[in-house]
Amino acid sequence: MLSVATQTLRARWASFAGVFVALSLGACLLATTGLTIASTVSDGRPPVWYARPAVVVTGSQTVSVTVDEGDGEHYTSSTRTRRPRQLPAGTAERLAALPGATVVVDRAVPVDVAGVALEAHPWSSAGLHPYTMRDGHPPHAVDEVALPEAVGARPGDRVEVSTPLGPRALLVAGIVTGPPAVYLTDPAAAALAEGRVDAIAVDGVTAAQVREVVGPGPAVLTGDRRAGAEADPGGDLLAAAASLLGTTAGVALFVSVFVVAGTFAFAVVQRRQELALLRAAGATPRQVRRLVLGESLIVGVVAGLAGCLAGLLVAPPFAAWLARSGFAPPGFTARFILWPLLAAFGVSLLVALAGAAVAARRAGKVRPIEALREAAAERRVMTAGRWVFGVLFLGGAAVLLAVIPSLGGEAIALVLLDAQLAITGIALLAPVFAPRLAWLAGLLVPGVAAALARDNARTAVRRTASTVAPILVTVGIAAATFAATATLWDASERASAARVTAGSIALPSGSAGIPVASGAVAGVPTAQSVVYVSTDDYPEEFDALYAGPGVDGVLRLPVRSGSVADLAGTDTVVAGAGLARAAGWRTGGTATLWLDDASPVQLRVVAVLEPSLDLDETVLLPWALRAAHAPRTGADAVYLTGSTLDDARVVTAAEYFRSLNAAQRRLNHLALVAVLGMALVYTSIAIANTLVMATGARVRDLAVLRLGGATPRQVLAMIAVEALLVGATGVLLAGAVTAGMLAGLRAGLTGLVADPRTVVPWTPIGVIAAVCVAITLVASLVPAALALRTPPGRLSSVRE
Questions:
Q1: Would you tell me how many other CB atoms lie within 10 Å of the CB of residue 497?
Q2: Strands (E), 645-760
Q3: Which of 314, 347, 379 is the last residue of a domain?
Q4: Which of these three, 230, 265, 289, is where a domain ends?
């Protein structure tokens, strides 16, 4: 049957062009994302700052949860924290006592020089990596500093350096090349770090000797593992990039199966007479199924190879785009790795076979006489399976929409699921809804061409439904996702701003934060952070807010039990309702968690908040606890209760929360554009392929119109109106789904936000809808115009 399948593909190559393009694009996308993801997690980056020392000692940066399953079985779940734990006091002295050991103590403090965010280090750490003193000399006095060339200063200049302990005027002693950093004398750096040690570089002894001295707690790093002691600002970006790429690949898989399945199903319907002749000539149902699967196998192999080769070319520039857009660190690139290419080829082949499986099963059921009798008539589209699953999906969406208001904050995540259920249900029932809705929409358009167009849309059920479905899926998902995301962001920002009772908020002018020495700030300092809590036997990351005394006077916090005024010392915590429920915390009880530097703490729960949109899975921690674990950074913001601060910009609450989320919103928007853009490409393929194939089946209808006196212009006008009606039908159905989803979302937000409002980004949604309709119009008119170039007499004798 493979030889027959090959001949069929040669004869009907136009019918399978859409499948080939879809599979090639899918394989290309999978190869591109696979190569990029593999490049983010493959062999670790070499050390840059600690390039020279043989051994580097740093605090543990991992939290773990071990679960005992009984019978001696247990497993451990671990996650990497954002900062390492503080090294025990006296570690450097004990290491220096080793015979032959050379020890360098390194500290890092965020500072800001002339608007450039840098880290301050002791001069002794300059020898841990290659560097060159371009001009001047190393710092010798506590008020001297060596700067990188990027600052633009010269030896002898006075520069203002913003530090967590306040601004300092320092004398530029020298200009240094190498990893960008600010170098102070060792005593000055130790004072600025308030004694905290980030890492200890050791030479002259073995790693085993170092481990024997430091014990099991600290991490002893050698080789490329030394990079684990360095700040890795690109780590979170790579994780976000991998998540985005995974989502995009998932969308590509789903839509590619949809396109391939639809194309093969449409091809089988159009080939009923051909399949009937094969059956009449003695072909068994199994052989017919093997014919269709053989066609998909051949197309899948060729498309998979083409897509993988394209992926090799696309991956490097795609990785560069991720870096330029902020999804990956600067300089990130994709490299050649074999297994992502093999995986992309295999998945492409599976998608081809899975997409053709239903069509092959249907083709195998064709009986010779039955198929010959029905060859000229459109086959029943709405099967029992479509009715059952369509009603089930729509019923599930209706039930979920009804219970969303009663679930509060937990239900918000279910809104998009509800939209997906509704879209799937309507897509399955499209043969019922779409033709009738297109006919009703056609009543608004006058003229004979419009009358013929709406009748065609109503009677050509399969063609109308096959065109409407991809438009519904793409526009529906785009509208639901964009609108839900924008509405949630707006609600969260408004809820946060409404809590603020302080007159204004002071923000730092640089990366060092606002100094908050005792009595220096007329307000309540706060800082964003994270904590790690064991939920479902896994250390999960949650948001945390460090807050100074009097936070209940500048924030209106909805307290369910306890008192926020008791948030003080270093052993208390206030928990959001959702996190308290997930972790089993109660007011007066003990909360066990890890701070962002991997330090385990047990805190007394002094209050639990009411369910809320912005604080439901957040903890409030006392400022004194932050001072004990992060003494080198100032406040992210100060809620002012008195006069304004020097060297700080003052904003309103709305401006603060809008700026706080601006970067994340931009990345989210880019991610949505990337994912939905890919869905739009697949939709274009599905629409164009369906309409091009359908035009070949209706050439006789076009010939009848021409022989009846219609001009080519009138025929094209009818086809254009029909395309617009079908496109508008898909957009209207998507709009109905989105409206229902937004109604459920608004109902869910009512108890969480005062006067919630619906935000709809009309521009991107409108662009996607317009592109879908335009593709429908072009894909209908172009093949019809080409067909009409044939004289009507010859056109009427053309076989399907």
A1: 17
A2: 648-651
A3: 379
A4: 230
Query: 228 forms bridges with which residues in the sheet?
Result: none
Give the domain range for residue 320.
1-45+232-379
Residue 26 placed within a domain: yes
Pull the structure tokens for residue 194: 């308030």
- What's the total number of domains in the chain? 4
SS3 448: helix
Same domain, yes or no, for 485 and 516?
A: no
Q: What rounded mean pLDDT belongs to the chain?
A: 82
Say if residue 388's pLDDT is above 60. yes
Token pair recorded at residue 672:
């949505």
Asked if 674 and 556 sit in the same domain, the reply is: no
Residue 51 lies in a domain: no
Q: Write the CA distances from 491 to 420, 487, 738, integer angstroms.
A: 22, 6, 18
Whether residues 689 and 780 share a domain: the answer is: yes
Q: Given this model, what pLDDT does residue 377 score?
A: 45
Q: Higher pLDDT residue, 389 or 587?
A: 587
- List CB contacts of 620: < 8 A, sequence separation 6 or more: 544, 545, 546, 547, 551, 564, 567, 573, 574, 575
Does any domain span residue 312? yes
pLDDT above 90 as % of the chain: 28
Interval 484-511: pLDDT, tens: 888 888 888 888 888 899 888 988 877 7
701-706: which pairs have CB atoms within 8 A and are 24 or more residues apart?
Answer: 702/784, 702/787, 702/788, 702/795, 703/792, 703/793, 703/795, 703/796, 703/798, 704/796, 705/452, 706/788, 706/792, 706/795
Q: Are 165 and 192 in contact (CB under 8 A)?
A: yes
Say how many Å lie between the first and final Cα of the chain, rounded. 23
Nearest C-alpha neighbor of 506 from the set 660, 661, 654, 646: 646
**Rounded Cα gap, residues 777 and 774, in angstroms:** 5
Q: How far apart are CA 792 and CA 710, in angstroms?
A: 11
pLDDT of residue 518: 47
Neighbours of 358 (CB within 10 A): 16
Structure-derived torsion over alpha carbons of residues 8, 9, 12, 16, reported in degrees to the nearest 10: 140
| Residue 284 in domain | yes
More confident call, 322 vs 638: 638
Q: Is 678 exposed, middle or buried (0-12, 13-18, 19+ CB in 10 A)?
A: buried
Q: What is the mean pLDDT of residues 263-275?
A: 66
Contacts of 450 (CB under 8 A, 6+ apart): 442, 718, 721
Q: Is 68 exposed, middle or buried (0-12, 13-18, 19+ CB in 10 A)?
A: exposed
Cα 670 from Cα 506, distance rounded (Å)? 30
- Say if residue 463 is in the same domain as residue 410: yes
601: alpha, beta or left? (left if phi > 0; alpha if psi -120 to 50): beta
Tell me the C-alpha distance between 757 and 735, whole Å. 18
**Residues linked to residue 167 through DSSP beta bridges, in sequence order:** 162
Residue 48 above 60 pLDDT?
Answer: yes
Residue ranges of E strands in 315-362:
none
Residues 718 and 788 in one domain: yes
Q: How many whole angstroms separate alpha carbon 742 and alpha carbon 748? A: 10
Closest CA to 15 of 264, 370, 293: 264
C-alpha distances (whole Å) from 247 to each of 252, 325, 413 are 9, 17, 16
Q: Are residues 70 and 159 in the same domain?
A: yes
**Structure confidence by residue, pLDDT tens digits, 84-117:** 888 888 899 999 999 999 999 999 998 989 878 8
Q: Specify whether 217 is located in the same domain as 331.
A: no
Residue type, 296: S
Q: Does 409 lie in the same domain as 345?
A: no
Q: What percent of the chain has pLDDT over 70?
A: 81
The CA distance from 706 to 714, in Å, is 9
509 within 8 A of 559, measured Cβ to Cβ = no
35-49, 117-131, 483-497: which is most confident? 117-131
Give the pairing of strands 158-163 and 109-113. antiparallel
